């Protein structure tokens, strides 16, 4: 029973840790690259 409770606590903490993670929800478009002659 202790292993089941531990598994629930670990999974719950991982799920809650994922909440609030900020970042773009889309794939950003590639910025046009400027070609510089050398």
TrEMBL record:
Q: Which domain of life is it from?
A: Bacteria
Localisation: Cell outer membrane
* The name this protein goes by in its record: Lipoprotein
This protein's major location comes to: membrane
Which keywords does UniProt give here? Cell outer membrane, Lipoprotein, Membrane, Palmitate, Signal
Species for this entry: Photobacterium piscicola
An example Pfam family from this entry, by short name, is LptM_cons
Membrane topology classification:
Lipid-anchor
């Amino acid at each position: 029973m202790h292993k089941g409770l531990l598994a629930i606590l670990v999974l719950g903490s991982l799920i809650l840790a994922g909440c609030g993670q900020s970042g773009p929800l889309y794939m950003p478009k590639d910025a046009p690259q400027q070609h510089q002659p050398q």
